[in-house]
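Tokens for chain A. Residues wanted.
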């Protein structure tokens, strides 16, 4: 049972029944080469000590450094206090297994609470994952073996691809436990996950993981909203967790301040925030993960996806 903390509020993760912190600790920043490892470990441990239990990571973050540092932070009795999530890029059984095994080793744990298929950016991704030679079978096998507990997926490009992933999963008789996607004051105006995907997740009781609430700080460059307003907006949505990048003690304090000061918004307050961001958000220029490829790690590293299914390879032109 999750311990209560005065600085943190908790929400239920979809139909899993898990009680998770309203703010989640993003793992990407923890592994930067210019980030001191001891500081990264300190951030994770202080976050847990003060009530953040949801930890985000990915197999591909910083060539594994993010998972390695988080694994070190989870030693000395911290692992049982955390709801640990990571992501894999592999679409094939073989590549998914390799990446999952590496994540387990780096994180220094016998099981991961939640593993998500990462960067569902293309319409072919769901088909590759749910193919008879696909990654879905690897994660299901791992779940049956007790190596993972829940399964989800992530993406940041197009809300219609998220809906398609849900449809392909349903056609295979599967419902995801979680879905991770951009939810912020800009998203509401442009190619909106909030408007298109969020209602379907709520309907299916799937845990909602909000990310890019500040878009790595890019939204703040618009000069329209503050960091706390961004976090409050995301917390006001029916999110189970709002994941935010934390690379300093100041950013950790910001996250706790956002939770302490959050109150559910009424329509007037929400509409006022949206009005302030409408013009800046209209072309997606502050959501570069939607309008450019610079956040698309699997596009830069297609080998991470693994081989196409054999039946596809047989019909490929020579």
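Reply:
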């Amino acid at each position: 049972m999750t311990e209560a903390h005065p600085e943190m509020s908790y929400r239920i993760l979809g139909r899993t029944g898990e009680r998770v912190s309203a703010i989640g600790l993003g793992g990407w920043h923890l592994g930067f080469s210019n980030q001191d490892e001891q500081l990264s470990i300190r951030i994770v441990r202080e976050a847990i000590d003060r009530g953040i239990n949801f930890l985000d990571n990915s197999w591909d973050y910083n060539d594994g450094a993010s998972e390695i540092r988080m694994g070190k932070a989870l030693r000395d009795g911290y692992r049982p206090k955390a709801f640990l999530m990571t992501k894999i890029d592999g679409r094939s059984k073989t590549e998914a297994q390799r990446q999952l095994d590496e994540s387990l080793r780096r994180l220094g744990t016998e099981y991961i609470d939640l593993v998500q298929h990462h960067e569902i950016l293309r319409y072919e991704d769901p088909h590759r994952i749910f193919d008879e030679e696909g990654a879905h079978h690897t994660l299901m096998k791992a779940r049956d073996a007790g190596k993972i507990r829940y399964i989800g997926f992530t993406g940041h490009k197009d809300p219609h691809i998220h809906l398609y992933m849900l449809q392909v999963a349903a056609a295979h008789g599967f419902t995801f436990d979680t879905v991770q996607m951009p939810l912020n004051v800009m998203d509401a105006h442009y190619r909106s996950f909030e408007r298109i995907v969020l209602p379907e997740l709520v309907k299916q009781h799937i845990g909602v993981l909000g990310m890019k609430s500040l878009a790595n700080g890019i939204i703040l460059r618009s000069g329209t909203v503050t960091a706390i307003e961004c976090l409050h907006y995301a917390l006001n949505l029916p999110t189970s967790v709002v994941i935010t990048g934390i690379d300093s003690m100041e950013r950790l304090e910001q996250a706790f301040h956002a939770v302490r000061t959050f109150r559910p918004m009424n329509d007037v307050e929400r509409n006022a925030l949206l009005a302030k961001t409408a013009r800046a958000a209209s072309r997606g220029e502050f959501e570069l993960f939607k309008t450019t490829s610079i956040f698309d790690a699997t596009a830069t590293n297609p080998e991470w996806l693994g081989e196409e299914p054999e039946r596809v390879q047989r019909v490929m032109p020579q």
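The first helix runs from residue 37 to 49. The first strand starts at residue 10 and ends at 12.
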